[in-house]
Amino acid sequence: MIMYLLMALTAAVVSYAGTWGARVAGNKLRLYRPIRSRDMHSALISKLGGLGIFAGFFVALVVASNSFFVKDIFRHNDGPWGILAGAVVIVAVGVADDILDIRWWIKLLGQAAAAFIVAIWGVRMSVVPFIPEPIFLESEVVQIVLTAGLIVTTMNAVNFIDGLDGLAAGVAIIGGGAFFLTAYWVHRNNPSTDNSDLATLLMAILVGSCIGFLPHNWFPAKIFMGDSGAMLIGLLMASAGVVATGQIGSGLYDRANGIPTIVPILLPFAVLSLPLLDLGMAVVRRTARGQSPWSADRGHLHHKLVDLGYSHRAAVVMLYVWTCILAFGGVAFAVFPWQIVLIVVIAAALIMAVVTAWPYIHRTNRDSAS
Q1: Domains of the chain: which residue ranges?
Q2: Where are the alpha helices (H) located in the chain, listed in sequence order?
């Protein structure tokens, strides 16, 4: 645990300094994008914060490869470097979009390129969790395509939810923290395996990088993470999920209570349930209007909360709470009996649903009374 925390601290310090440097450079060079009608800010702000997050990830990964305990992850394993190569590509694509506003299909091609780099040279999905038995994928082509598809989907999910100051970084910290604790717990409690784990390391570094970035991005934001930061977070989260999924046949998750065969694939979807929900709703909404699924609008979850009457900060905190319920509720299946977890999560979600809708309920009652 100590080494993982040290890697997270390294990522946080470097990310904080790197984001500060990107902020200064962006302001000095006036690398701004015009304010759009759907934007929630009113001042020109640089969107190069993803460079700071990447700096934290890069330095911490290199340090980890030469550090006690966690360096065993890199022994005879090209996975971390394949993920780093994909990260370099997606950050480059994101920066180009943040500065030049490239066409959506060009950005999608860049996402696919980064995802395929990870799937070919980094990590890939070899098992599809299923009940009663997992499905093992023999075809490398199928493994690569499924992995790339998962990575692209996750990158867009995180990118879609990045609409309020501190939102995407906070969701990544909460979701990544839940993922980290579960992956660490599973390895720590299995005496037959090396306790070092790539998924746990990736989540420690990701959480640290986002912690270092968040002070610059908290409302009112001084810099945005932009597409480069949001897509990097999605790539790292999906890659960690692929690593966890590949461990189904190893016996690592046999000690998990409840539904062990689906716990690994449940992790990334649980911690990213809110962004994935927002992504799905956006695709359905835009397709129904005859628009491209990648076209922008002002119909995301965070926009709806602000329209309900929540302040900027209140809307962000509200989505933080929802992320806690869904993320920690999802990973609780690896620790507690699923029946108990299900009851607690449903109860918490119902209470939170009433709290979230309270401004609308209050306004409706007030209008009815008048």
Answers
A1: 2-369
A2: 2-28, 49-64, 79-100, 104-117, 140-161, 167-188, 198-217, 226-245, 263-271, 273-288, 301-308, 312-331, 338-369
